[in-house]
Write a structure and sequence with these properties.
By secondary structure, the protein is α+β, with helices and mostly antiparallel strands. It contains 17 helices and eleven strands.
Length: about 375
């Protein structure tokens, strides 16, 4: 027990909210749950731990020598601020992704692992790793409880936590899971813009905005308006969570607000360097631009409807979208066309009609026709 406290001190001194221990045995029933979610489509397109449910549900499949898991929680609030007020042409990044918050967690766990190794034990750090379901490990180790949002919460920081583990062959005293839970509070459930929290504690990733900002391909039309001005991730269920309100209010910084027009003009190499800490599908910046096109259409439409955008700024935004409407990449043409339809008006309609004359790709034609219909029902 004392040795565990010494390891916890190492983690806490480096910024962790806490460190708990649990045995490295299988998480009962977890593999079946993961497999069921994968088969039903509730896992969405992201795979991670769903690649091999049996492996993810028992870390000993990857580390046969494992005896214990040390699980740490890392608070990224305060320190992530908030995106501040929206404006035409601007987008926002979720707080967990405003910078590489995982670097501090990794440094803390590497220090814990180094101490274990210095004491003669084997140790390996696992952070956002497909070989372990970190939320299950955190709950069993007692560093948080499983919230109705499906996030792991603790009393001080609420859901504003990143999780990571050290697997070791040291036999350490197992923590006791928290008895605290969300009680009658279900604020996160109605806060979700797409109803992705389908039951308390159960998230359907195929409905989650954060999921769609991180996968390849075309964003389904039914999720685009709900994305609002989000470029990456979504904080709605976390913002609504009462245990996290105090720490959120204590952070006055404005972070995560992005100039979408500037982003869309940025070259591939610079974008990848700027957002190297994000999960970008296939490490291809076209998916960041895809998100930006949707966010640009939504931010401009919202600002225009509220009378908060100058005509010159709206013309600039429409001009940027018009450029992508003629891009060789079908992905850009689809999302730029949708964004123009979202903004609406005679200019947008004229651009869409002109593009339809030359468009040969059936899927793009379908999207442009839909966008043109949206223009017809929008502003003059």
């Amino acid at each position: 027990m004392r040795y565990l406290q010494e390891l916890e001190m190492i983690a806490v001194e480096r910024g962790c909210a806490g460190l708990g221990a649990t045995h490295a045995g299988e998480f009962s029933g977890l593999a079946v749950t993961l497999r069921d979610r994968l088969d039903s489509g509730a896992a969405g397109k992201l795979r991670f731990t769903y690649k091999d449910p049996e492996r993810a549900a028992d870390v000993r499949n990857s580390y046969p020598w494992a005896q214990s898991l040390l699980v740490a929680s890392w608070p990224y609030m305060p320190g992530s601020g908030g995106p501040g007020p929206s404006a035409a042409g601007s987008g926002r990044i979720a707080r967990f992704a405003t910078q590489n918050h995982y670097s501090g967690l990794r440094a803390a766990l590497e220090a814990v692992a180094a101490q274990l190794e210095a004491d003669g034990y084997r140790a390996a750090v696992l952070i956002d790793d497909e070989r372990l379901v970190d939320r299950a490990a955190a709950v069993r180790a007692g560093v948080g409880w499983h919230g109705k949002s499906s996030m792991v919460l603790d009393p001080k920081y609420g859901p504003w936590l990143l999780l990571g583990s050290v697997v070791t062959d040291a036999a350490l005293h197992s923590g006791i899971p928290m008895t605290r839970d969300c009680g009658k509070c279900d604020a996160c459930i109605p806060a979700c813009p797409t109803g992705a929290i389908v039951a308390p504690g159960i998230l359907d990733a195929s409905l989650c905005i954060a999921h769609w900002t991180q996968v390849a391909g075309i964003i389904p039309r039914r999720f685009r308006m709900a994305m609002g001005d989000r470029l990456y991730g979504c904080d709605e269920c976390l913002d609504a969570c009462p245990p996290g309100h105090r720490v959120m209010a204590s952070d006055p910084h404005v972070m995560g607000r992005v100039d979408l027009v500037e982003l869309l003009a940025t070259d591939d190499e610079t974008l990848l360097r700027r957002y190297e800490h994000l999960y970008i599908p296939r490490n291809n910046p076209r998916f960041v631009r895809r998100n930006a096109l949707v966010a640009l259409g939504n931010s401009a439409a919202a600002a225009e409807a509220a009378g908060r955008v100058a005509s010159v700024d709206l013309e600039r935004i429409v001009g940027v979208l018009a450029g992508f409407l003629g891009d060789p990449d079908e992905l850009y043409r689809i999302h730029a066309g949708w964004a123009l339809g979202r903004i609406g008006g005679r200019v947008a309609a004229a651009l869409l009609r002109a593009r339809l004359v030359d468009e040969a790709a059936p899927e793009v034609v379908h999207e442009l026709e839909h966008a043109l219909g949206a223009c017809a029902g929008g502003r003059d």
